[in-house]
Amino acid sequence: MNLDNFFYPSSVAVFGSFRRGAIAYEILRNIVEGGFEGKVIPVNPKGGTVEVTGRTLKIKPRLDEPVEVAIIAIPAKFVPGLIKELKGLTKGAVVISAGFSEVGNAKLEEELVRAAKEAGIRIIGPNCAGIFGVHGKFFGSFEVRVKPGGLALISQSGAFGGAALAMGNEEGVGFSAFVSYGNAADLNESDFLRYFADDKNTKVIALYIEGVKDGRRFMEALRYAASKKPVIILKAGKSESGARAASSHTGSLAGSYEIYRAVFRQVGAIEVEEMEELFDAAKAFEMYEQAGKRVAIITNSGGPGVLATDKLESLGLEIAQLSEKTVKVLRASLPPQCSVKNPIDLIADADYGRYRRVIEVVCQDDNVDALLVICVPPIFIPSEEIARAVIDAKCNKPIIVNFMAGELVREGIRLLESHGIKNFPTPERAARAIAWLAKRQDF
């Protein structure tokens, strides 16, 4: 299914109130401020003009020319009628409006679906927060804008999606797209999984779901997507109480969590437990497609190295047994106080040369699949120096980095990120990142 008109549109119409603070106004502002290069048409029966970020746009009383997508934020009872009017004028509509099946008004939602089918219009929503096509500079939502990258976020919950976008900005994650699909009256998670599986700008797909209406179709779409690229899933409504809450939230059927869990494992999707893990997994897969299970830890501090060791082993990974050749080279090139066993402890005064040399030596060891590099810099060695060592090191294996903590490593992390290297702020989170990469290799 081609959904390019939603995520790479050349024209958009926004329906609703354009007074400041109104949802339609905020979406319009996001579209304009986000740098959308296509045609933007605000529509309201009252007409007039609206000023957005220094631009004055004419408000049309009704849409009288074709657009690729319509964004609708008007009272729910008027939506089916508007959809009928849009026949022949648009291919798709994003219905932000709430007041449908999620509040028990199933008949109105059925009327909306019938109107859309008769008009030949595909619907996202209703009761949703909108969509982003980040590489198309299209921010058709009232949520915070994000920087371009490889993560497509599909969220059944608009509020979760908004929080996730904001957290993604803080975590340094780049997005290809965002879609909040709400009640899924027409297009749903299965359609978006298939679309993003084939989208050239998407490297990894993240999915927040509470429940699905067509389990078999979902499983087929999930299998297809996971065969093409990593799919990370955060499932809500696992408990009985959570399932009831999910049903009242979006009108979906939450179903048995054990069934979902079995499906995720069967098709090779990666399930995470919380938002923090979702972004850690996304960061890992933005950098690497997969990794093996044998890990070498390089650190300048013993404690974090031990924590990483414990976490890796608890996750089913192996602490790599370094070859005699590697140990011999390390022993000859490191101060005698350093430990050349894995974890390799470079001690506190490790500088650029020591880090780079050890990364390159260990990377050549056939017993090592991935490297976990930890840095807790003393005040006399700038974290940027160690970051530069990681960047400059010649290594063709996955390197996961844990620079900690706070102000001491801020500049180092910034330098790493400017070279596409994501930081994981604790040894445990770094270890989990490697575990997710290893799961992908098993699939």
TrEMBL record:
Organism: Pyrococcus yayanosii (strain CH1 / JCM 16557)
Domain CoA-binding: 6-100
Name by which UniProt lists this protein: acetate--CoA ligase (ADP-forming)
Gene Ontology molecular function terms on file: acetate-CoA ligase (ADP-forming) activity; ATP binding
Tagged with keyword ATP-binding: yes
UniProt keyword list: ATP-binding, Ligase, Nucleotide-binding
UniProt xrefs under InterPro entries: Acyl-CoA_Synth/Transferase, CoA-bd, Ligase_CoA_dom, NAD(P)-bd_dom_sf, Succ_CoA_lig_flav_dom, Succinyl-CoA_synth-like
PANTHER family, alphabetized: ACETATE--COA LIGASE [ADP-FORMING] (PTHR43334:SF2)
A Pfam family of this chain: CoA_binding_2
Its EC number(s): 6.2.1.13
Catalyzed reactions per annotation: acetate + ATP + CoA = acetyl-CoA + ADP + phosphate
